[in-house]
Design brief:
Elements: H1 4-27, E1 33-37, E2 69-73
Antiparallel strand pairs: 1-2
Amino acid sequence: MVSKKTVNTLLASAVALTVAGGVSAANAMDASKEKCYGVAKAGKNDCGAADKSHACAGMAKEDASPVEWVAVPKGLCEKLAGGSLKPMTDAHDH
């Protein structure tokens, strides 16, 4: 008979592996997509900011921040108003 502690340990391990797998999958971007800076809505960015102000998705503090990005289909970014394939971290980039 398996103890309750063993079951809990196995369950916790399975959850940890699932979360770790989900994180690595989320960080891997589909080859048909590109990072598009300057078009994310506040709280709707994908992953960390280019200026290293945060490292997580959903933490953009303002609309259209030049250091926040979202993944879009390749070729779309530069067609969007304010869209850039590179972060605009310098005043000269704007």
